Amino acid sequence: MINSTTYNYLNSQETPFYYYDLELLNSTLKSIKEEAAQYNYHVHYAIKANANPRILSLIQTFGLGADCVSGNEIKRALENDFPANKIVYAGVGKSDKEIEIALDAHIFCFNCESIPEIEVIDEIAKSKNKIANIALRINPNVNANTHHYITTGIAENKFGINPWEFEEILQLLENSENINLIGLHFHIGSQIVDLSVFKSLCLRINEIQDWFLDHQIIVDHINVGGGFGINYHKPDEEPIPDFKNYFALFNEFLSLKANQELHFELGRSIVGQCGSLISRVLYVKNGINTNFTILDAGMTELLRPALYQAYHKIENLSSKDLPENYDVVGPICESSDCFGKAVSLPKTKRNDLIAIRSTGAYGEVMASNYNLRLIAKSFFSYDIKK
Ligand SMILES: *Cc1c(COP(=O)(O)O)cnc(C)c1O
């Protein structure tokens, strides 16, 4: 919901663009900090959700660490003042160059996803006379019950190390002089709104910890990844995810060993609701069943609907007329360039301002130049003169 000052500001910019409500991001971060502090939990922000420098520097001021999935994300984290000793680095395909960047920066931990990766990190660390701290990213075979493209923790996925490889890993670690095992890492998927999924994860981690204990191994930290979902259907009713219940669940069901730290890697739940993609109606075109509202934003600015049929709430900020149904589409030459079918909007006309909500996560970071379009700019609530 926006007031008239904000509307006039948005309406005066060239569309399409990303708009970020930094007051909301600030309150979200306050909530995370308060709730995590009750249990001394460590939260890393998953940079891949939104790497906009203004967003990163605000998040950084709350003392969060960074979760990176590429060498360039590590560089971006450091540029925006995330301390190296709070950076974790995951990814199934870390290149030699990226491993070197991470070693040179002295990051907190590599989250390792395979045996050959551990061998390569050991080799590169040896050549640099360094020790790499690693956690094993374990595939716990827990189904996240989310879209299959964003499920990462079941046996068939490419992510992580499977339990039947543990024996071999322990042997490898004994012979890897430049590797130091400090943690066990899990990340089972994204946009998980059913908290019982995280309960299943906790119980599975308890079993896995027992296996390692039987083999005389207690790691310094457990990292349960991210994946906590947001309410895409009702962004104004639930602007801040329920971090209180989320962290309380881990406190209740995860059995940490003495002095063991618990780490999280949250992306979407931190930045998702603070962003909107603002666009203008180019044309309203007759269709067979419903009319088309053709926007000047498309899959180049927001890929999620085209990539995995993701739902985003769409609002007409300019019209208060009676509602009609529209297929809301972008200008790109692909039929998947569609933000929603039969969307009920107040009667819509050329030049109306449209907000596509909850685009703070996996929006701007996935922008592309397809059709040789320019990358859209971003604007921030803090810059509106009140
Ligand atoms: C993407 C990712 C995250 C963050 O996921 P969200 O669903 O945005 O919270 C955390 N950890 C890893 C390893 C990831 O790949």
UniProtKB/TrEMBL annotation:
Q: Give the sites modified to N6-(pyridoxal phosphate)lysine.
A: K48
Which segments of the protein form a coiled coil according to its record? none
Q: Which residues bind pyridoxal 5'-phosphate?
A: G227, E265, L266, G267, R268, Y362
Active site at C333
Looking up PROSITE patterns in the UniProt record yields: ODR_DC_2_1
Q: What class of enzyme is it?
A: lyase
Q: Which cofactor does it need?
A: pyridoxal 5'-phosphate
The similarity comment for this entry is:
Belongs to the Orn/Lys/Arg decarboxylase class-II family. LysA subfamily.
Q: Which NCBIfam families match?
A: lysA
What name does this protein carry? Diaminopimelate decarboxylase
Native organism: Ancylomarina euxinus
Q: What is the lineage of its organism?
A: Bacteria, Pseudomonadati, Bacteroidota, Bacteroidia, Marinilabiliales
The protein's gene is named: lysA
